[in-house]
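Lab notebook, bench 4. We co-purified these components, and the gel suggests they stay together. Before we commit to crystallization screens, I want a quick structural picture of the whole thing.
Request: model the full complex, all chains together.
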Amino acid sequence: MSSQPLIELTDVRFGYGERPVLDGFHLSVPKGQIVAVMGGSGGGKTSLLSLISGRNTAWSGEVNIDGHNMSGLSPKKLYALRSRMGMLFQFGALFTDMSVYDNIAFPYREKTDLPEPIIRDLVLMKLQAVGLRGAAHFMPHELSGGMARRVALARAIALDPMLMMYDEPFTGLDPISVGVVAQLIRKLNQTFGLTSIIVTHDLTESLRIADRVVIISQGKVYRDLSPQEVRESQDSFIRQFADGLPDGPVPFHHVARPYAEQLLSEL
Amino acid sequence: MMNVLDLIEGLGASITGSLKRLGLLARFFINLLRVIAPMLKRVDLHIKQIYFVGVRSLAITIVSGLFVGMVLAVQGYEVLQRFGSVESLGSLVALSLVRELGPVVAALLFAGRAGSAMTAEIGLMVATEQIAAMDMMAVNPMARVIAPRFVASIIALPILAMIFSTAGIIGSYMVGVELIGIDSGAFWSQMRVSVDFRVDVLNGLYKAIVFGIAVGLLSVFEGYYSAPTAEGVSSATTRTVVISSLTILVLDFVLTVLMFRGLN
Amino acid sequence: MNRSRTNLAVGFFVALGMAAVVFMALKVGNLASFDSSEGYQLEARFDNIGGLKVRAPVKSAGVVVGRVEAIYLDGETYEGVVQIRIRPQYRFSNDTIASILTSGLLGEQYLSLEAGGDPQYLNDGGRFTKTQSAMVLEKLIAQFLYSKASEGSGDRK
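Here is the predicted assembly.
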């Protein structure tokens, strides 16, 4: 069934502690798409990834990944599903006690019975794909931020996942590295036929590579647009994001009582 | 009035907090026990961890053992000579080391040297999302990261305790026999008469195994549940050393009562 | 760290631990102190066992031949019953005298066996017929004082 979406969230409610971060959340992603998810900090973007990867379960509503309902999935089945997902963490999350080569070999050694020569070829292929075959013997602390991100990307795609999740892939990178990582995401999605979800603040870069931009606000999908629509949108909220304005619908000030009242009040 | 109520409330809160943590620890322990057996065939992982917690603690253990033995010899001689039984020095030193000081001091050193390092390492792996990344690769971090470190503690600490006791006895021999001049024959023979391998040495070994379980469990637990910040990792490391040390001493008392109560 | 060097170091570490155990067994401890399944059991009854303790040595001619296994009071005769385990290679005749002695003036107390001449040997579960209780210092002093006192009264007469 190619018509069935790979990711489907229906009326999801989820949060930490008492306060829901996502409430009445709907999202459907068909196979092959790159979706950029945007929204203010603490707005539920990372929660969305943890729900999709099954690291948390929704309070209510349904999370369906490739036809599997994530709540009530046994740990074994969850792991089976996860070995078909890849995730790029914000700062790469490379294993600091292993070389670049061993980091990428890790999923093969743990999840497959492949002999070492074949693993070597696979690792070199993945490293070639991210352009770092020459850095195989480096330790993670010897890598720049951009290189570490690319190595992590090579490790995430090691087991040829159907779904890739990117948690702030551009954060803390220089502009050149941002461009490199963005192009890699695009290229990998095409060549391996992946489906990708990118959680990011970087609208310009997202507009370049995403098929869709989903903006989350107050626990719901606020807008679900194509990049073209975002560029042309006159919506004040979207313009605030696109143009990086400090104040707008997303207020500069955290909720507080009136300034004058607080200054004049007793300690 | 209000203050008293606050105090009681604070007390209640800290008790519930501790109980919750204890429950968490129990659940963690059960989950850990489940994944140990299938991991044991990964010998290389365990050897690597035994290297980190055991071999790297060897120097401090031997040096401490030597000095503790030397001090025991000087102090023991001081007391024994008043009763004219300096020949008993060997048995005094050996019994103290084999039954108590070997396992206990080796465990305390182990908690400070290896336990804290394990907590910090795991804590940093949590903070830098390495644990989460592993989980996302469908590799259970409990089995891959936590279990080998726990098992390595249980293997390494008894070995270290035995080495500590041996170093201590050699240290007391150096001071007692070579320096003070107690008869070497009397030193060893008194020791052998009073130290029973099965009762004293093996019970000391069992103590060390129990301490290895306790320190290993607490170290990996504190690391696994440390807050993913610099302060979180540092306070977890401190907690490992403090809680492990207290646990060792309390367990030592309980075990001593159980093991040696019937003997005298 | 090279893997083979790690293996080597860990191997060395484990070997050192084993050497320590061997040292404990041969040089420090008494491995020869057989466990409860070996040897055979004998029993001796005393009016007073003094400060004899469980695990105290049993010696014959100063050589350790066994250990005290259990001590209890016979509720009917009010005798202290001492159960000992003797190493299998030693046999003692029926008329062996068991006495509780002290090594040195303040040393630990032990059970001494003085072999007799009876051709019959004690077997497992046997009992010593001739025993000598522990010396109790207070009793000795009291005895000494009484004898002195009676000597003194004798002189006056």
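The interface with chain B takes residues 53, 55, 79-80, 82-83, 85-87, 89-91, 93-96, 106-107, 110-111, 152, 155, 159 of chain A (CB under 8 Å). Worth comparing against the SEC data before the next meeting. Chain A has one domain: 7-264.
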